[in-house]
Design brief:
globular, eleven-stranded mixed sheet, binds glutamine, alpha/beta, Amidase signature (AS) enzymes, single chain
């Protein structure tokens, strides 16, 4: 591989200079949880720098998943994705800021800091892998940035920061060493400056892992052999175009993207996918994601995980762990623990959890039918440009959750998706979302490459 391909424009990676720039950029935008330069290894990716979302375990380096409760957690092992990148010759540089446990859309639900968008410091970086997306945009040098998506957390920051973000099929990439948000939805993916960087990064981390039995044995294709596609049949879910809150500038850029495809002689058609509307996909996603999240967080009790207090100060275990949890979790995490516990409780389970799981299955079926006819489905990545940090603070949870309408569908279905920049609105980047059938990472990368 030539380094130039990942980096466009840069000839040599100088690790010292990279570190310096990373520190400067961080001072300005608060994007890194911890900066720590790892060893320079030899291999295919020869010293290409990489960083990882805070929720991805890194040996001896803070892994707090944006939460106070894990503030001092330093794992004794590397997540599989980190290990694979290190083995490929890539050089580790640290951890990126995120929403607490992935609960959020702007990275403002963070126990430590508020990351700022490199295109406009008054705006959010997106979430939950906000630092992971923004650092790619802020650095002049190339890097591979590991993110994680449960309901859209790679697409969202890719769009808000004007970078490329690929979310693989569920089970394509090992989750071993990921601080879980919702196990049936979590996927680790890659953010990078260009399509080649995203493809190369994914190629290294994808594939079966003995330590994660949900990983597929399906062969990993050579994603980085990018090819231009001809005669594509592209579907545009009609429900997305009718979305309330779809900003004018975003819509215009999307229409231009469609025109571009048409000019290249691809066929573009609207398709009716009723379950992708905000009425079904969003509630189904939030019920399932919160139910799983609330069980995952049960282990953060200050015994095996989570910060400790002096047990002598408490009457019994219940009092001890409720104090640890009250102190350690932020507001959004608490909200999700309450709602998630409620929806899977006896008496309510049928009404919420089971129903949401049924809707999820129907969404999957609807996609499967669509892919019988279309190569890929496209939409805007996010309905808006990155809002101002102050505006984001004023939004209520329901308004924020609604912003995920374009991304929760493919995430619920475990489909691969890629967000690529498709212009600017009001000086801020917007994104084009390309969704493919299961295990069609190569195809969506090729479509993105064709579009570039
Ligand atoms: N915004 C969504 C949520 O809060 C998605 C986050 C994610 O993918 N981690 O759940």
């Amino acid at each position: 591989m030539t380094v130039e391909k990942v980096v466009e424009g840069e000839k040599e990676i100088d690790s010292k200079k990279f570190l310096e720039e990373l520190k400067n950029v961080n001072e300005e935008y608060n994007l890194m949880r911890e900066i720590k330069r790892g060893e320079q290894n030899q291999g295919e990716l020869d010293n290409i720098p990489f960083v990882a979302k805070d929720a991805i375990c890194t040996e001896g380096v803070t892994t707090s998943a944006g939460s106070k409760i894990l503030e001092n957690y330093r794992p004794v092992f590397d997540a599989t994705v980190v290990e694979r990148l290190k083995q490929s010759g890539a050089q580790f540089f640290g951890k990126t800021e995120q929403d607490e446990f992935g609960f959020g859309t702007f990275s403002t639900n963070n126990a430590f800091t508020t990351p700022k968008n490199p295109h406009d410091k008054e705006r959010v970086v997106g979430g939950s892998s906000g630092g992971a997306g923004a650092i790619v945009a802020a650095m002049d040098r190339p890097l591979i940035s590991l993110g994680e998506s449960t309901g859209g957390s790679i697409t969202n920051p890719a769009s808000y920061n004007g970078v490329v973000g690929i979310t693989p099929t569920y089970g394509r990439v090992s989750r071993y060493g990921l601080v879980d948000y919702a196990n049936s939805l979590d996927k680790i993916g890659v953010l990078a400056k260009n399509i080649y960087g995203a493809a190369k990064g994914l190629e290294i981390i994808a594939g079966h892992d003995e330590n994660d039995q949900t990983t597929s044995r399906e062969k990993v294709q050579k994603y980085s052999d990018l090819e231009e596609k001809e005669d594509l049949k592209i579907g545009v879910p009609k429900q997305y175009l009718e979305l309330e809150g779809l900003e004018e500038g975003v819509k215009e850029n999307f229409e231009k993207s469609l025109e571009k495809f048409e000019e290249m002689s691809h066929e573009v058609e609207e398709i009716d996918m009723p379950l992708l509307s905000a009425d079904y996909a969003v509630p189904s996603y939030y019920v399932l994601a919160m139910a799983e999240a609330s069980t995952n967080l049960a282990k953060m009790s200050g015994i095996r995980y989570g910060f400790e207090m002096d047990p002598e100060d408490f009457e019994d275990f219940n009092e001890y762990f409720s104090e640890v949890r009250s102190e350690g979790f932020g507001e959004e995490a608490k909200r999700r623990i309450l709602l998630g516990t409620y929806t899977r409780q006896a008496g309510y389970r049928d009404q919420y959890y089971i129903k949401a799981a049924e809707v999820r299955q129907k969404i999957i079926n609807q996609y499967k039918e669509a892919f019988e006819e279309y190569d890929v489905l496209v939409s805007p990545s996010m309905p808006n440009i990155a809002p101002k940090i102050e505006e984001a603070k004023d939004m209520n949870p329901a308004e924020i959750y609604a912003m995920d309408t374009l991304t929760v569908g493919p995430n619920l279905a475990g489909l691969p998706m890629i967000s690529v920049p498709n212009g600017k609105s009001n000086g801020m980047p917007t994104g084009l979302h390309i969704v493919g059938d299961h295990f069609e990472e190569k195809k969506i990368l090729d479509v993105a490459y064709t579009y570039r």
